[in-house]
Specification:
By secondary structure, the protein is an all-alpha fold. It has helices spanning 2-15, 30-38, 50-60, 72-83, 89-96. The chain has one domain. Helix 1 (2-15) packs parallel to helix 2 (30-38) and helix 3 packs across helix 4. The two termini are 16 Å apart.
Length: 102
């Protein structure tokens, strides 16, 4: 469904400044590109990609993270994310700062 794909691309674009490797989805639509271009990167980027950001966010929030680590190449990054220090308060605030966003 195009509307759902657009929402996913825009959501990824909002998170893109918070990671070192922005996802390909930020280029999927005009709206996503516009958001990605105006996003402000923090002085210190704590996560490599959105997958790591999501896993660490879930762990830090005492959530249950059930990543699909069925591929060998994802295993080490998953372990590294689980062993990483908690996300900074400023990063968590940026993630949850817009409750209306999805």
């Amino acid at each position: 469904e195009p509307a759902m794909l657009e929402r996913i691309a825009v959501g990824c674009a909002k998170l893109a400044p918070l990671v070192k490797q922005p996802p390909v989805a930020v280029h999927a639509s005009k709206a996503a590109r516009a958001i990605a271009e105006t996003g402000q990167r923090p002085d210190h980027v704590e996560c490599n990609d959105i997958a790591e950001l999501a896993l660490r966010f879930a762990i830090d929030r005492a959530g249950i993270a059930l990543p699909r680590l069925h591929r060998r190449e994802h295993l080490l990054t998953g372990i590294a994310a689980a062993a990483a220090p908690p996300l900074s308060a400023s990063l968590i605030a940026r993630i949850v700062g817009n409750p209306g966003d999805s």
